[in-house]
Design a protein that fits this description.
Function: Receptor for netrin required for axon guidance. Mediates axon repulsion of neuronal growth cones in the developing nervous system upon ligand binding.
Helix content: 10-25%
CATH topology of one domain: Chondroitinase Ac, Chain A, domain 3
Number of helices: 5
Family: Belongs to the unc-5 family.
CATH architecture of one domain: Sandwich
Subcellular location: Cell membrane; Membrane
Radius of gyration: 45 Å
Pfam family, one: ZU5
Largest sheet: 7 strands, mixed
InterPro entries: Ig-like_dom, Ig-like_dom_sf, Ig-like_fold, Ig_I-set, Ig_sub, Ig_sub2, TSP1_rpt, TSP1_rpt_sf
Length: about 675
């Protein structure tokens, strides 16, 4: 055997040259076993008469060696090369006790030489990272450190980073480097660094990916410099002047904080009143001259004109007053002619009413159960007694069908009295698309929906009027004289879906009303308009903190009013009733009602609505359960969806009082005959 042969090898001859000892041209190197593949170890020595492998102190059997003989071309000495294979089973026998190693031993006539040890290890890479990067929101120019501790493995895993699935190369970006502990460091966050970052670990066995970490780099807003003070608002006496600044230095981005403080400053100012000059008394007549004339004079000195006052007598003022009066009369005649012409052409192009029509109330429409011969969801019972006295809706084609909901009575609008009321409105189809197209070309209205399903609009003058979105409980009342005389406004009212408008909520805040836009913003109103919309809160001062939010032109949502607290401005007022709120405002815009629970007793109204197919064409029957905020607009949207699906309402909608607790809302089906039906749900509840 090889062991016996190695034991009988003679010691080197005394005085032999050390150059005749074997030296290795190829030594075995460390290798890794991947899965179940055997690995090969090789060594080559010259001059050598025998070469054997020893693994973990034991000689490898001679039959496991593959030997090749040759001659070194340079020296002519004999060369010998030996290979062996190591399997996973051999390594696993001693795994955990010590490392598996192998070493070559070469013999010549002068003695023996040992090679370096080569270690054989089983390669692996575990699945789970010891530490993964986490999502963060950081301010611009702030440093970011994303930690990553790769899974345990042999050989140790190499780490690389991906930004939005593209490799991060620190050699190409001086703002980025990777620490020896594999953490990714961004020296100064930039807007371009907003991305999803993934840590990737790999070795010869596998490649692992960590969970992606979303990094958002935000910019807090900063004020621009103040503008110059405007001129004094009055030309005589005390007035005010203002200056403004904008939150554009920089503009808030990616959820950055809006600027704190006022964007407008006002200060009192005093302007010296102009003093018009007045004539002094005439002087005495002069002595009659050679041409038989004499003269007298007077001066504009009692008083002399000051502070821009006019010089001259009363006859000059009378002349100017007469000219102005003539001009005013001509303008009024022209306006009257235009109004008469417009009325002959069909009147104003929207819901315009005279002042008496504004007293029209929210007329109730009762909900009746559907009849047996009518498979519709809901049946309307219209109130024909008030059909000639109120006008509700927009210019859009009305989708009145079997689904019309009850509109609550409100004391803000008293019933109509006796009398005749005239309404002027135009054809809806073409003008609806034209109005939305005109709005979409203006920068502020580009976020409005392109359709007109949840929109009402109209043209209004000083008579005022009311816009309503059918079956939503949302309306906008413009009282008489709110629009200055001589002006005509195109006014719109829009209901937004929650997924269309980003309304940030923090802490225990929750949305209590639909998000409604009315506009155009920035128009001048001399009296408050009244925006009515539903809500789903069980209001209680000790359980809720309710705020009215308004979106600014920069897109930020601001608290403009806290119900029950002393108002910080007189521009807004909100009256909260059991199921509706009324916002009084002279500034149109986008509004929403947001509440923050103060205790676990705080609750909001949810409505549980069940729909199912009208027929059962197969052995399967699906029940669709909707858990909605208890407002008319949400229920309207669900009913419209179920109309398209052919669904049928199962029973009357139920109201749930959902409290702010740590428990989930659990839905389950009861009283299902087990002999007839079997639930396909994996759990007994959802």
């Amino acid at each position: 055997t090889g062991a016996q042969q190695s034991a009988t090898v003679a010691n080197p001859v005394s005085g032999a040259s050390p150059d005749l000892l074997p030296h290795f041209q190829l030594e075995p190197e460390d290798v890794y076993i991947v899965k179940n593949k055997a690995v090969s170890l090789a060594c080559r020595a010259t001059p050598a008469t025998q070469i054997y492998f020893k693994c973990n102190g034991e000689w490898v059997h001679q039959g496991d060696h593959v030997t090749q003989h040759g001659t070194d071309r340079g020296t002519g000495l004999p060369v010998m090369e030996v290979r062996i294979e190591v399997t996973r089973q051999q390594v696993e026998k001693i795994f955990g006790l010590e490392e598996y190693w192998c070493q070559c031993v070469a013999w010549s006539s002068s003695g023996t030489t040992k090679s370096q040890k080569a270690f054989v290890r089983i390669a692996y890479l575990r699945k789970n990272f010891e530490q993964e990067p986490t999502a963060r929101e950081v301010s611009i120019e702030q440093g970011i450190v994303l930690p990553c501790r790769p899974p345990e493995g042999i050989p140790p895993a190499e780490v690389e980073w991906l930004r939005n699935e593209e490799l991060v190369d620190p050699a190409l970006d001086a703002n980025v480097y990777v620490t020896p502990e594999h953490s990714l460091v961004l020296r100064q966050a930039r807007l371009a660094d907003t991305a999803n970052y993934t840590c990737v670990a790999k070795n010869i066995v596998a490649r692992r990916r960590s969970a992606s970490a979303a990094i958002t780099v935000y910019v807090n807003g900063g004020w621009s410099t103040w503008t110059q003070w405007s001129g004094c608002s009055t030309s005589c006496g005390r007035g005010w002047q203002k200056r403004s600044r904008t939150c554009t230095n920089p503009t808030p981005l990616n959820g950055g904080a809006f600027c704190e403080g006022q964007n407008v400053q006002k200060t009192a100012c005093t302007t010296l009143c102009p003093v018009d000059g007045a004539w002094s008394e005439w002087s005495k007549w002069s002595v009659c001259g050679a041409e038989c004339t004499h003269w007298r004079s007077r001066e504009c000195s009692e008083p002399a004109p000051r502070n821009g006052g006019q010089a001259g007598g009363a006859e000059d003022v009378a002349l100017y007053v007469g000219l102005v009066a003539v001009a005013v009369c001509l303008v009024l005649l022209l306006l009257v002619g235009v109004l008469v012409y417009c009325r002959k052409k069909g009147g104003l192009d929207a819901d315009v009413a005279d002042s008496s029509i504004l007293t029209a109330g929210f007329q109730p429409v009762s909900i009746k159960p559907s009849k047996a011969d009518n498979p519709g969801l809901l049946t309307i019972q219209p109130d024909l007694s008030t059909a000639t006295m109120t006008y509700q809706g927009s210019l859009c084609p009305r989708q009145d069908g079997p689904a019309k909901l009850q509109l609550p009575n409100g004391h803000l609008l008293s019933p109509l009295g006796a009398g005749r009321h005239t309404l002027h409105h135009s054809s809806p189809a073409a003008e609806g698309a034209d109005f939305v197209a005109r709005l979409s070309t203006q920068s502020y209205f580009r976020s409005l929906p392109r359709g007109t399903t949840n929109m009402a609009y109209g043209t209004f003058n000083f008579l005022g009027g009311r816009l309503m979105i059918p079956n939503t409980g949302i309306s906008l009342l413009i009282p008489p004289d709110a629009i200055p005389r001589g002006k005509i406004y195109e006014v719109y009212l829009t209901l937004h879906k929650q997924e269309e408008v980003r309304l940030p909520l923090a802490g225990c805040q929750t949305l209590l009303s639909p998000i409604v836009s009315c506009g155009p913003p920035g128009v001048l109103l001399t009296r408050p308009a009244i925006l009515a919309m539903g809500h789903c809160v069980e209001a209680s001062a000790e359980n809720w903190s309710i705020r009215l939010k308004k979106q600014s032109c920069e897109g930020m949502w601001e608290d403009v009013l806290q119900l029950g607290a002393e108002p910080c401005t007189e521009l807004y007022y909100c009256q909260l009733e059991a199921q509706a709120c009324y916002v009084f405002t002279e500034q149109l815009g986008r509004f929403a009602l947001v509440g923050e629970s103060l205790s676990m007793a705080a609750s909001k109204r949810l409505k549980l609505v069940l729909f199912a197919p009208a027929a059962c064409p197969s052995l399967e029957y699906n029940i669709r359960v909707y858990c909605l905020s208890d407002t008319q607009d949400v229920l309207k949207e669900v009913i419209q969806l179920e109309k398209q699906l052919g669904g049928q309402l199962i029973g009357a909608p139920r109201v749930l009082h959902f409290k702010d607790s740590y428990h989930n809302l659990r839905l389950s089906i009861h009283d299902m005959p087990s002999s007839l039906w079997k639930s396909k749900l994996l759990a007994s509840y959802q």
